[in-house]
Amino acid sequence: MKKIILFFTMLLLGNMFLAQEKDTLQFQKSTFEYQYKKMYIPVGLMITGVIAGGHGENSWNNKIAATRNRDFPNFENHADDYLQFVPFVAAYGFELAGMKPKTDWKNRSAILIKGQILNLGLVYILKNTLKETRPDGTSLSFPSGHTANAFAGATLLSIEYGQDNKWVPYAAYGVASTVGIMRIANNRHYLSDVLFGAGLGILSMKIAYWTHQYQWNTTKSTHDPFVGNIY
Fold first, then answer.
1. Quick one: CA torsion of 158, 178, 88, 202, rounded to 10 degrees?
2. Is residue 214 within 8 Å of residue 208, measured between CB atoms?
């Protein structure tokens, strides 16, 4: 019940925030305009994560965890600790390799920072508020921070390079999905943790784009403000 209350509170606040920003964005030279349809996937993942959040005998969480424990009881791999950062590195590495991003590095960095403050801030709050137990018995399970981080990076990478390079979103979200699967395989998270984390990461980065003002590297005006007023 706590998860449901917190989720819909976050969703309500997010919609209020975006509604206030929408009119302003119409006058900005934004490269990623707000459209309510672009909320379907991340919000859908978050809702599915909430629905899957039970721990009953027939719950999705327990069935997948039981399958993992039966088929891969000794699986342990730390690649997900590093894979989660690959999309962020690629967001700058692709440009160095000659690919053209949508935004310059200053605005891109500002968007990344804002998106991650929102993303990781909400992950921290939810983890420490709900204090859900992980499959391995440790604490702070819900939601998956690794997965949220990976999907936030995949969203940044897809927006920056996906329009001109159609393979980028597939590769970016493929890496992010691998991180989520490995969190389950490593017995560190339940399915609900990963689904909610994925949606939260995507939505956080999209909000960062929707609300960005693009204040750097804009064309400077050549008009002299004193002409006609002072001389």
1. 50
2. no
**Does pLDDT of 12 surpass 50?**
no
- Measured CA angle at 182 (ends 176, 185), to 5 deg: 155
Percent of residues in the chain assigned helix, strand, coil, to nearest 5: 65, 0, 35
Statement: residue 25 has pLDDT above 70: no
Distances 25 to 30, 44, 56, 90, 216 between C-alpha atoms, Å: 7, 24, 45, 27, 16
Query: How would you class 169 by CB atoms within 10 Å of its CB: exposed for 0-12, middle for 13-18, buried for 19 or more?
Result: middle
Q: Tell me the C-alpha distance between 17 and 36, whole Å.
A: 13
**Tokens 């975006």 belong to residue:** 18
Tell me, what's the pLDDT at 31? 54
Q: How far apart are CA 14 and CA 156, in angstroms?
A: 19
Is the model's pTM score more than 0.85?
Answer: no
Q: pLDDT for 192-224, tens place per residue?
A: 999 999 999 999 999 999 999 877 655 444 444
Alpha helices in 97-230 (DSSP H): 105-130, 145-161, 167-185, 191-210
Sign, CA torsion 126/42/195/58:
positive
Instruction: Give the separation between CA 171 and CA 194, rounded to whole angstroms.
Output: 19
**pLDDT of 53-85, one tens digit each?**
887 778 899 999 999 999 999 999 999 999 999
